[in-house]
Design brief:
It is built from six helices and 19 strands. By secondary structure, the protein is of the alpha+beta class. Strands 1, 3, 4, 6, 11, 12, 13 and 15 form an eight-stranded antiparallel sheet that branches. Strands 10-9-8-7-14 form a five-stranded antiparallel sheet, with no helix packed on it. A four-stranded mixed sheet has the order 16-19-17-18. A hairpin with a 2-residue loop joins strand 12 and strand 13.
Length: 427
């Protein structure tokens, strides 16, 4: 094709030149030069067009990569924004949740000041009771109440309740008369289920089965609060008074001194009523079930108050307390013992000249050797707790006497409780 083109051009040039002046020209050379020029021009155009296409392709490629980077960056920014919004929402929800349900404080009992009466007039630790039977040391006003075993312990189970005042009354020698002294303390443990509301205990200050009703307001004891008439106290840290996400045992302690009433829940003094105008004559413990549920009480004790421990010490150079208690068969101090221990620690802090021998005693259950070792271990545990609370070790010593120095009859619950004691003797 190229050769034909050159031939035609040559013939045209020859014809033109023949008809004009005779000029000496190297036609072949010129033709070849022009053909090369045009071929090179066409090649340059093709190359330029190829490079243009290539540049456009590369440009598109870079633009696509830039677009991908921009999209990825935008996605990352949006994801980060979404994450921050999610975290903010989560923090708001957690804050709201914390506002609704605050965590319960850990029990320390460091400032617990309840000191129980020294002479026990009624004690029920449920030993020897048969499951399903009515509690042997009680009488009933109304309801369905029986012995049960729960969480490894014998308990009194309120299965059903009648109209208030309902529940049980302690069987005393003369239930119709006033069996509560001018100074007395009442203690018991009460169980509350988790996530249940309108489930509470009543404590009436008269015997609803045998005595005439008085006008003293009853105590209403809920899982996180105690009410007395128009006075109500919420347990520290609790979000709601009548419901909690955690099931728990509550130790309830009541102190009455002639006309003043104090009520404690676990480590906290909940109520301090300075003037009760009527005389408490007995007690009735009942429960209110909104629906069926588990209502248990255990370890009920009524004790007569006495002169302050320090005044007793000034008279006898020693004092006796049944307020320091231990797990059964062990030297582990129960938390409710801290009221008495705190009292003695303060006494020794206020009177630096006092030095005490801490002496442990047991009831007659078990062998002599076991009770001897147990009494020594318990006395040592009390001494070590007092040292931990700041009393110098030089001011204390400990010993145990087992069951060898009983103060009361070991055939009754009250006598055994009186013999399980700790004495503080001056040295």
């Amino acid at each position: 094709m190229r050769n034909k083109l050159i031939f035609l051009i040559a013939m045209m040039l020859l014809t033109g030149l023949t008809s004009t002046a005779q000029i000496k020209v190297d036609v072949k050379k010129k033709i070849n030069r022009e053909a090369n020029r045009r071929a090179n021009a066409n090649a340059d155009k093709a190359i330029d067009k190829g490079f243009d296409s290539m540049e456009e392709g590369i440009g598109d490629l870079f633009r696509k990569e830039e677009k991908k980077e921009e999209t990825a960056k935008e996605t990352k920014v949006n994801a980060s924004k979404d994450q921050k919004e999610d975290e903010a929402e989560q923090q708001e929800e957690e804050a709201a949740g914390e506002a609704r349900v605050q965590p319960q404080p850990q029990l320390s009992w460091a400032k617990y000041d309840f000191v129980p009466g020294t002479e026990i007039i009624f004690e029920d630790n449920h030993e020897g009771e048969q499951n399903g039977e009515f509690p042997g040391k009680w009488d009933m006003k109304s309801g369905v109440i029986e012995n049960a075993e729960f969480d490894g312990s014998n308990v009194i189970y309120f299965r059903e309740t009648g109209n208030a005042p309902n529940g049980i009354v302690p069987m005393m020698k003369d239930c119709k008369s006033d069996y509560l002294p001018d100074e007395f303390t009442i203690e018991f443990d009460a169980y509350f289920e988790a996530d249940k509301f309108n489930r509470f205990f009543w404590v009436h200050f008269y015997d609803a089965k045998n005595q005439k009703r008085n006008m003293i307001n009853p105590l209403k004891i809920d899982i996180n609060s105690i009410d007395f008439g128009d006075t109500k106290k919420l347990y520290p840290g609790a979000a709601r008074s009548n419901i909690d996400k955690t099931a728990k045992w509550r130790h309830i302690a009541i102190s009455f001194n002639k006309r003043a009433l104090k009520v404690y829940m676990d480590d906290t003094r909940m109520l301090n009523i300075p003037n009760i105008t009527e005389n408490p004559t007995g007690i009735t413990i009942g429960a209110y079930n909104h629906k069926e549920g588990m209502f248990f009480i255990k370890n009920i004790r009524i004790a007569q108050g006495a002169v302050p421990l320090y005044d007793k010490f000034l008279t006898d150079n020693k004092f006796i307390t049944t307020g320091i208690r231990f797990d059964v068969g062990k030297a582990t101090i129960k938390p409710e013992s801290m009221g008495t221990i705190n009292y003695v620690v303060k006494m020794m802090t206020d009177h630096p000249d006092l030095n005490f021998s801490v002496e442990g005693h047991t009831d007659s259950d078990g062998s002599d050797a076991t009770n001897q070792s147990l009494s020594e271990a318990r006395a040592r545990a009390v001494m070590e707790k007092m040292i931990e609370l700041g009393i110098s070790a030089e001011r204390l010593k400990s010993t145990g006497y087992g069951e060898s120095k009983s103060l009361a009859d070991n055939s009754t619950s009250e006598g055994k409780a009186q013999n399980r004691r700790v004495e503080f003797v001056k040295f």
